[in-house]
Write a structure and sequence with these properties.
Elements lengths: L1 H33 L6 H25 L10 H19 L4 H29 L7 H25 L20 H24 L2 H26 L2 H24 L3 H5 L2 H27 L6 H8 L11 H4 L12 H16 L13 H5 L15 H30 L5 H17 L5 H33 L1
Protein name: O-antigen polymerase
Organism: Polynucleobacter campilacus
Keywords: Membrane, Transmembrane, Transmembrane helix
Length: 475
């Protein structure tokens, strides 16, 4: 009787863990679908709190039957995340310049980021039992874009054409406010679906590969169409094209240097996927070309960047309403978004030595940090997430975040995992997103912590699985 109960208990725990894991995956899917949608803060808070409570139960049960000591250095990314959150709290008590505002952010943005980290870790571990369930994440984001299309198409049909970029007043009537939200989600959609496709290729399951391939094409076309024709975002086109082009080049190099590369190319299946990839590249090029034709900023981007980083010589960025925009070497007025973003980021980087531990506030880091060097500064942020985070919480914070991301990417390259290419793609794209994307909305930071913790959880689960298999083999 005792033997039966000893055998049954782990099985019951395993089934219980699987059920909790499925609930976490569903909660995360809904959360990702609404995270950047306007007027959803109450629902997001409910999902984060509920998800965190379930995550704590899940993690307790999981480590009851799995050894936490098996994790080793694989846990470094999540340790960095925890220390970064502790540093934010430490900063409030010892380095705060505006305690009232900082406390308000601690109770809102940072609390939600901490909850998102716990949820991300547990969900990452849960996904290891059912890797294909990660498709729900990208499907949830894709559905958000379908809603955007449904809102946009009537406007396009009224005008008699399908290319009707939204202006700043239109965004108030739609699912997402501003360009930054659909840009973030669209790039994540392309990166996630690209990783899904590559992991399907790596797994070698033909039926699943066919589904992943079709899904990837739908995600790519949806996001790129939105970038080029609805939102009109250069950053989206650039970052959305990056994983497609980068992995295509990697595949070509691999085929030519690998011994079996040429023989692989002779198969009918390989040719079909090459045709599909060529189609995706052509369509991506068409969207990029259309966006370049409509946005003159591409044509003078190098000249505008040269003007933008000379922040002392061209101080217009400090108050463009007062000074206007400068002209570049060709005598043309600079494209305002290129010039301002480069100038703001340059001013922010130059201000970091004056505040190596950060000013402690997310909503106006540039306005506080740059006033010693640039007394007339009026912009409140740099439009670069990494620069803003460094200005807000200093060099220690940004080093922890970059170490977490670098550790995830390094281990993804070395580790055998059903999420190998998803992890590599997401780690690179998240770095790029926060290099050119702003922190104007707190949910962007919450999503960053969630994805870092999610990827850390995937790697922790893979490490524990490998450790368990090696122990069983030794026996």
């Amino acid at each position: 009787m005792q033997a039966i109960s000893n055998t049954t208990l782990p099985n019951l725990n395993t089934r219980w863990i699987s059920c909790l894991g499925l609930v976490l995956i569903l909660i995360s899917s809904v959360l990702l679908g609404i995270w950047a949608v306007k007027d959803t803060i109450a629902l997001r808070n409910i999902l984060l709190v509920l998800g965190t409570l379930i995550s704590l139960v899940f993690l307790y049960q999981y480590f009851q039957i799995n050894s936490i000591r098996a994790i080793g250095l694989t846990g470094l990314p999540f340790v960095c995340i925890v220390i970064a959150l502790i540093w934010v709290l430490f900063h409030y008590y010892f380095f705060s310049l505006n305690p009232e505002v900082q406390l308000r952010e601690l109770k809102s943005i940072w609390l939600r980021s901490a909850l998102a980290s716990i949820l991300g870790l547990a969900t990452g571990i849960a996904l290891m039992k059912q890797p294909r369930a990660i498709t729900l994440f990208w499907l949830a984001i894709l559905l958000g874009f379908f809603v955007l299309f449904a809102q946009y198409l009537p406007l396009a049909l009224q005008s008699g054409k399908l290319i009707v970029p939204l202006d700043h007043t239109d965004f108030r009537r739609y699912l997402f406010i501003g360009k930054i939200n659909p840009m973030y989600l669209g790039v994540l959609l392309i990166a996630g679906s690209t990783g899904l496709l590559l992991d399907a290729v790596n797994a070698g399951q033909k039926s699943w590969l066919r589904i992943a391939c079709i899904f990837w094409l739908i995600c790519l076309l949806t996001a790129m169409y939105a970038f080029a024709f609805i939102v009109n975002t250069r950053s989206g086109i650039l970052l959305g094209s990056l994983p497609v082009i980068a992995w295509s080049l990697y595949g070509l190099v691999y085929l030519f240097i690998h011994r079996q590369g040429l023989s692989i190319l002779r198969s009918a299946a390989a040719r079909r996927y090459i045709y599909m990839l060529a189609l995706a590249l052509v369509l991506t090029g068409i969207f990029a070309y259309q966006q370049i034709q409509r946005d003159s900023g591409w044509l003078q981007i190098i000249e505008d960047v040269k003007i933008g980083y000379q922040v002392e010589k061209y101080p217009n960025w400090q108050n463009v309403d007062l000074y206007g925009f400068p002209k570049n070497e060709s005598g043309n007025v600079v494209a305002y978004n290129t010039y301002e973003r480069v100038a703001w980021a340059t001013a922010g980087i130059k201000s970091i030595p004056n505040h190596p531990y950060g000013v402690g506030i997310l909503i106006l880091p540039l306005g506080l940090a740059a006033k010693e060097l640039f007394p007339g500064v009026t912009p409140i942020s740099t439009h670069s997430g990494w620069v803003d985070l460094t200005l807000a919480f200093g060099i220690p914070f940004i080093c922890l975040m970059w170490l977490a991301n670098a550790s995830i990417a390094y281990r993804a390259i070395r580790q055998q995992s059903p999420f190998k290419y998803t992890l590599i793609t997401l780690s690179i794209i998240l770095f790029g997103l926060f290099l050119v994307g702003e922190l104007s909305n707190g949910h962007n930071l919450e999503m960053l912590f969630y994805f870092f913790a999610l990827m850390a959880g995937m790697q922790v689960a893979q490490k524990i699985t490998s450790f368990t298999h090696s122990e069983l083999s030794a026996k």
